[in-house]
Amino acid sequence: MQWLSNLVKRLVEQIFGLKLQERLGGSIHFFIYDVVKIFILLSVLIFLISYVQSFFPPERTRKILGRFNGITANILGALLGTITPFCSCSSIPLFIGFTSAGLPIGVTFSFLISSPLVDLASVILLASIFNWKIAIAYVIVGLILAVIGGTIISKAKLEKYVEPFVYSNKLIDTDQEALTTRDRVNISKDQVLEIIKKVWLYILIGVGIGAAIHNWIPENIISAGLGQDKWYSVLLATVVGVPMYADIFGTLPIAEALVLKGVGIGTALSFMMAVTALSLPSMIMLKKVVKTKLLVVFIGIVTIGILIIGYAFNAFGYLIM
């Protein structure tokens, strides 16, 4: 979106009378450009994804997934998560519906891991910030984590650690065949508005933090704590990310600013994944539907997966940068 960057540059220089080489001018350009870019891409992609989803209501999706078992079902569950533009908190009600409808618990956890972590809208944004190689690699490792996590939980036979009330909830299906094109368009527009309302504040905060990191915090300070040469950088980024709550769209600008300051791509992605997949509010909500042992297993699997992915990207990220 070079046209947008050039347009914002003219706005900053001609309207505000600032230079991009200056801290304030650079910060304003970073903020306006990233906010507008994210909202444009987010709106278009969520509309398209929601339109496609209108043909696959939860009950129909459950029936499709129910035809498969084993790792194939886990792969399909993870892939389903990539086309659901939800944060982890929003994914949990659908997780409850799938579990109560009889889907294996491992499949539903594959969905729960991939849904906030790897959705199509965030992949497009990731490619626009870095490049397509990084975006595709991120999708692949995210799906692998979701499949492995769901498979481990399935093999461990942890169904008894789901709260009993979950199995009494049923998916409510509607007659999707009766929907007209206008109905689907209206549903898609409503979905765009609903998600924008949920994430707009996190986007503004995330871009604001990214602009501050990019233009105001000296590179040597960031490198001292999160530099690629620091063995603990991935672990620190993951731990720092867990207590936070933000949508992936709000963490992407922070990851962008960190990488521009010399932080390893794996460290930045670990922070982003921890915030979106293991945020404290999400874990509190998940604790309402699963027992402590299952929650600990889930957190352990995802944390170990994030650390492995982070260190792997730091070690081999230069191949795709």
In N-to-C order, the SSE pattern is HHHHHHHHHHHHHHH
**Class per helix and strand makeup:** mainly alpha
**Strand element count:** 0
The helix tally amounts to 15
Amount of helix: over 70%
Total number of distinct structural domains: 1
Separation of termini? 19 Å
Which runs of at least 5 residues are low in confidence (pLDDT < 50)?
none
User: Which whole number gives the mean pLDDT?
Assistant: 82
Strand content: under 5%
Q: What is the 3D shape?
A: globular
Largest sheet: none
The radius of gyration over CA amounts to 20 Å
Fold and architecture overview:
The protein is built from 15 helices and no strands. Helix 7 (120-129) packs antiparallel against helix 8 (132-155), helix 11 (233-241) packs parallel to helix 13 (265-277) and helix 12 (248-260) packs antiparallel against helix 13 (265-277). The two termini are 19 Å apart. The chain is globular, with a radius of gyration of 20 Å. The model has no long low-confidence stretch (mean pLDDT 82). By secondary structure, the chain is an all-alpha fold. This is Permease.
Note the topology.
Blueprint: H1 2-15, H2 23-53, H3 58-65, H4 70-82, H5 88-100, H6 105-117, H7 120-129, H8 132-155, H9 181-215, H10 219-226, H11 233-241, H12 248-260, H13 265-277, H14 280-287, H15 292-316
Task: Considering the chains and any ligands shown, give keywords for the structure.
single chain, 321 residues, mainly alpha, 15 helices, 74% helix, Permease, cell membrane, transmembrane
How would you summarize this macromolecular structure in one to three sentences?
Keywords: Cell membrane, Membrane, Transmembrane, Transmembrane helix. With 321 residues, this protein is mainly α. It has helices spanning 2-15, 23-53, 58-65, 70-82, 88-100, 105-117, 120-129, 132-155, 181-215, 219-226, 233-241, 248-260, 265-277, 280-287, 292-316.
